[in-house]
Amino acid sequence: MPNWVDLTESLLASPALYAVLIAVSLLDSFLPLIPSEPVVILAGVAGATGQTNIMLVIAATTVGAFLGDLVPYSIGRWMGERVLKRLPVGTKRRKTYDWLERELALRGGFVLVSTRFIPVGRYLATGTAGVVRFPLRRFMLYVAISTLTWSAYTALSGYLGGVFFQENTLLSVAVGVGLAFSVTGAVEFSRYMRRRKNPVDPDDVVAEHR
Question: Residues 6 or more apart from 200 whose CB is under 8 A from it?
C-alpha cells in the first residue's frame, strides 16, 4: 500500500496530484485505512502557497468521494438479502443496521450528509442505504451534496491553515486537522441533540418504510 501522504508531498507541483486526490478519496469511501483527510488537508495547505489550485483540489476530491460512495451502496443493493442473513436479530450489528434503516427512512438526506464527516459512519450509512434500496436518484443527490461539502471543508481547513501559517507547514497541517476534527465533532453533537429532541417509535418507522 502506498504512503499517500509522502506521495502527495512529492506531487504537489504536478498535475498528477489531482489523480491522487481522486484515488485516495474514492478508496477512503469504503476502505477504512486509507487516510484521505490528511492528504486533502496537505493539498489545501499547498493551495495557500500557490503550489496547487484549491478549486481543483476540491473538485478532484469531490469526484473521487462521490464515485467511492457508490461502491458500498451498489454492493449493499447487490448483496442485500445475504447481508441480512448475516445479521441475526438481537445482535449488536443487527441493532446498528435497524437503527440506520430507521434513520434513513425518516431523514435520509440528513443521515447521508452528516455521516460523510464520520469515517466509520459513512461506510455504514452508504452500505445500509443500498441494502434497504434507498432510491438511487435521491441517494446520488444527497451524496453529491455531502461529498462536495466534505471536500470543501477538508481542503479549505488546510488552505486556511496555510494562509495563516505559511512559514510552518507542519503547524498548517495541524491546524487544518484540528479544524476538521472540530467540524466532525460539531456534526456528531448536532445529530445527538436532534435524536434527543425527535424521539420516534422504531416499529412505526420501519413499518412505514417497508
Answer: 102, 106
Return d(Cα 81, Cα 59) in angstroms, integer.
Answer: 35
C-alpha cell at 104: 434513513
Sign of the dihedral through C-alpha 92, 97, 98, 104: positive
Contacts of 109 (CB under 8 A, 6+ apart): 138, 142, 145
Per the rule left: phi > 0, alpha: psi between -120 and 50, beta: everything else, 50 is: left
**Using the 8-state DSSP alphabet, how is residue 133 labeled?**
T
The pLDDT-based confidence of 22 (bands split at 50, 70, 90) is very high
Segment 27-50 mean pLDDT: 87
- For 14, 106, 130, 204, the CA distances from 208, given in Å and listed in that order, are 52, 9, 18, 6
Asked whether the predicted pLDDT for residue 175 surpasses 60, the reply is no
Q: How far apart are CA 51 and CA 105, in angstroms?
A: 44
> pLDDT at position 200, please?
44
pLDDT range class, residue 202, cuts 50, 70, 90: very low
**Cα 164 to Cα 37, 158, 170, 208, distances in angstroms:** 19, 10, 12, 51
Is residue 157 within 8 Å of residue 41, measured between CB atoms?
yes
Q: Please check the confidence at residue 65 and state whether its pLDDT lies above 60.
A: yes
pTM: 0.74
